[in-house]
Design goal:
The protein is α/β, with parallel strands linked by helices and 194 residues long. It has helices spanning 20-23, 27-39, 75-89, 106-109, 112-118, 134-150, and strands at 3-8, 17-19, 47-51, 55-58, 62-64, 98-103, 122-127, 161-162, 168-169, 189-191. Strand 3 (47-51) and strand 4 form a beta hairpin. Helix 2 packs parallel to helix 6 (134-150). The radius of gyration is 16 Å and the shape is globular. Mean pLDDT is 81; it is low at 177-194.
Length: 194
């Protein structure tokens, strides 16, 4: 599967210059990164961080610690940031249909969801759950990772099966491939081909 994860940065960071996946220390960020790596099986070159200072950065890219947040940026600066992120992301969307997991709050995904929806190579955009606080989101991603390791459907608890195409599905829910991270009642899924 041609997939990428986009994870929002966080305030908690280690000092100095480090690879991005080591720099950010927030519990939500760590839970999302663990799910992208272990649950989805994504390689570092398929995981990107939405950084308030640097824009779109690869998880393995070395960056300096910083203090910045989209929450304190004026609207014009956020639009410039979004354009910069989109310009960096577009070349990575070329080729087979891409599944995108967007693990970010509303400020970091504002405008990005619409652009992804209209890109011809995006097959599906999976959004992080809406309406949960930091603790709820962290618990959500940890639960999704446990379901993945146990090979259980997070919606009904049934054992998951693997389709001949390599996609995982629940025989009771009849949900394919993204069943592991997108319980219907918690998260919005945008499917291009529905």
């Amino acid at each position: 599967m041609n997939a990428i994860a986009l994870i929002a940065c966080c305030k908690s960071k280690q000092p100095g210059c480090r690879p991005a996946h080591e720099l950010y220390t927030g519990t939500l960020f760590r839970a999302q990164l663990a799910f992208a790596r272990e649950g989805l099986g994504l390689a570092m070159n398929q995981i990107f961080i939405l950084s308030a200072r640097y824009g779109l950065i690869g998880a393995g890219q070395e960056i300096e610690s910083y203090e910045a947040s989209l929450a304190v940026m004026p609207g014009v600066a956020r639009r410039v940031w979004l354009d910069r992120v989109w310009d960096s992301l577009r070349p990575r969307l070329i080729g087979r249909p891409v599944y995108v997991w967007l693990m970010a709050g509303k400020l970091y995904r504002a405008g990005l969801v619409e652009r992804l929806r209209h890109h011809p190579n995006i097959h599906r955009v999976n959004l992080a759950p809406a309406g949960l606080g930091l603790g709820g989101q962290t618990a959500y991603w940890r639960a999704q990772l446990r379901c993945y390791h146990a090979r259980l459907c997070p919606d009904c608890g049934a054992g998951l099966h693997e389709h001949e195409s390599g996609l995982v599905y629940c025989p009771f829910c009849r949900l394919m491939d993204d069943v592991l991270i997108q319980p219907v009642q918690l998260a919005e899924t945008v499917n291009r081909y529905d």
